[in-house]
Amino acid sequence: MDELTILLVDDEQEFVTTLAERLEIRNMNVSVAMDGETALTIVEQELPQVVVLDVMMPGLNGLDVLERIKSIDSKIQVILLSGHGSSKDGIKGLKLGAFDFLIKPIDIDELIIKINEGWKKYCDSQ
Amino acid sequence: MKDGKNIVIVNKNQNELAFFGKITASTTHEIKNVLAIIQESSGLLEDILDMSESEEFKHKDRFISTLGRIQTQIQRGIGITSNLNHFAHSPDNERSRIDLNDLIKNLSTLAARFARLKKVELIAELTAAPLIVEANSVQLQMDIFNAIEILLNHIEDGTVKLILDKQDEQLKLNLQYDLLTDSQFKCVSTSEEWLEIQSRLLNMGVQIILLT
Questions:
Q1: How many other C-beta atoms are found inside a 10 Å radius of the C-beta of residue B14?
Q2: Are A105 and B44 inside 8 Å of each other by CB?
Q3: Fewer Cβ atoms within 10 Å of its own Cβ: the N or the C terminal residue of chain B?
Q4: B95-151 tens-digit pLDDT
Q5: pTM, to two decimals
Q6: Residue A8: its chain B contacts at CB < 8 A?
Q7: Which one of A8, A54, A81, A84 would you mutate to disrupt binding with B, by most B Cβ within 10 Å of its Cβ?
Q8: ipTM of the assembly?
Q9: CATH superfamily label, B95-210
Q10: Which of B36, B130, B128, B146 is closest to B81 using CA atoms?
């Protein structure tokens, strides 16, 4: 198995940097992006196995970014973060190839479980 | 708007309601983002505390218990904003298919503070199967809320159960107050406001009953 690298994408800087720090404490290798364009550049350069992606962002929204990530490397597993109580965005995302979705605010333990499941799926698809 | 045999005037101010709902829904997303940052920041503090030994950090236990209280309140805030978000989306469609279970669950939470001011606890008793009604969501919620408020105006202390049921294809919402007296029952159930609400709800397919 390759070493797990994760990309966190969210336009809320305080959220994404704090979450990254929490994952790093758990010995995870994390990059962050605060918009869709930067996220796609990092995806092309670093090819992370798992991307945690906010749906609602200014500019390129999460679902657009998801489609572009999948066209770069369909093996990359994307976990969507939605602020909505409803699962509409999540279902739309799953149809576009997302691995799973979580409702914000998230539980760190649940996120880690999803990340590990996504990583396993990535490795299985190699 | 024609609704069965009765003419029901709904949403004369649909545009205003839609605007109000849109802004409220958007604001709840912002509040959720704030709560998410507070949650992750307090979680990070917990992580850092977990990395240090008790001897190294004199007040570790007090910090952990305080962070626990912050986490509890974050969860409370998330619940409130989720309910408010759901409510703010009510005017999205003038008429929609609504599961009464979702509506009562949400409305009982939103009305909980009004009940608490009268030292009353609201409990929603839902059904396992969906109870679908096709109606104007704002009107439906407003009438059920007003019915609860009429009851609250006449009582203090105790518990009000909002019990959903379906009998012979009729959807029912039973209000059951554990300390109800005969005079309270009479005051509420014969009041003009209550009877009007009862009639409007029946036109929307929901029979509301104050249980004795």
A1: 13
A2: no
A3: C
A4: 889 999 999 999 999 999 999 999 999 999 999 999 999 999 999 999 999 999 999
A5: 0.80
A6: none
A7: A84
A8: 0.86
A9: Histidine kinase-like ATPase, C-terminal domain (3.30.565.10)
A10: B36
